[in-house]
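Following up on my earlier thread - several people asked me to post the actual chain instead of describing it. Fair enough. Here it is, all 136 residues.
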Amino acid sequence: MHTSEQAPFGAGVARRGNEPPAAVSVHGWRYHHIGIPTGVPRPGEYYLERFKMYVSGFETSPCGIEWMRFESDSPVHPLIKSVPHIAFEVDDLKAALQGKQILTEPNSPSKGVLVAMILDSGAPVELLQFRREVDS
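Reply from S.P.:
Thanks for posting it. Predicted structure:
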């Protein structure tokens, strides 16, 4: 884990209960999903060999709930395997990572997707950047 340069993410920023978090109101991040670790096999899960984990629920959950079940030797960061994470779509992953504590360096788990995991208030946060195909 390392921290890129600049001030800590959201340090000292207070908000009222009716205000969205700075990730949304200031940075323009868009909610994508919540990932919840589980030790119980779930219907419809599929295996991600690279990460030695099973995922399920994302495609069918109206709220974007993704269940994650890890093999004991999964290379995924221990915090991600034990604490739920929220995921946001960003327009520029490199810019979004500035000033953040990085848990997982940027990587491409599938074609057209770039992701990284950061730490915020002790919890993992996933940032995703999608390459949008332009119709000719």
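The beta strands are 2-3, 30-37, 46-48, 53-56, 65-70, 85-89, 101-107, 113-120, 123-130. That should answer part of your original question.
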